[in-house]
Amino acid sequence: MNDVIRVTGMVISAMPMSENDRRVELLTAELGKISAFLRGGRKIGSPLLAAGRLFAFGEFELFQGRSAYTVRSADIKEFFAFLSADPEAFCYASYFAELATYYSRENVEDLPLLRLLFYAVRSLHNTRLDRALIRYAYELKLLQTEGEALPEPPFSPASSAGRAWQFVLDTDAAGCFQFLLEPQAFREFSQTVATLRNRLIDGYFKSLTVLDDYLSLQR
Length: 219
What we know:
Elements: E1 5-16, E2 22-28, E3 32-38, E4 57-64, E5 69-78, H1 87-103, H2 111-123, H3 131-145, H4 160-170, H5 183-200, H6 206-218
Parallel strand pairs: 3-5
Antiparallel strand pairs: 1-2, 1-4, 2-3, 4-5
Helix pairs in contact: 1-2, 1-3, 1-6, 2-3, 3-5, 4-5
């Protein structure tokens, strides 16, 4: 009998595999990005039903197979239930998860990336914050987490945008989204982060296209 592996993680993608089963991708603190099967995870009343929900966060008990893991049990701590009733927040969260997937590696522990994704998604529920600003702060903090962010602001550190840049770099993931900017400072901050992101990240993100399309329809 295979040993049980216990991990803390978040469901970053989920898809049906049969009438009763589901396959998920987890971003975990201990094993990085992994694929796992939920046997019977689509059946009403299954103890694994909650573990198949996108963005479900908690503790998972796994068995390791040849090409994937199988979830034996799960203790879900956070569902981010607000996402199901908030299409805009769901679009942002989907982009955050896809960007985390870009950087995550299989079977390589990555607690910092998991914490950053968790707090970014949670911040979307705070109505006092600007979601667009959360997005750019997330991108900058992610680049720093992966060792790619500029250590100093590319503009005057005394400016509002410069102070915001330094705040994101100096603050833990739990607090780095807790700030606001005036429109001009936001434009400077967001444009600079976007330029850095486009220079360092080579990839197409479907969720970002969906997010941009959604936001354009709301204007």
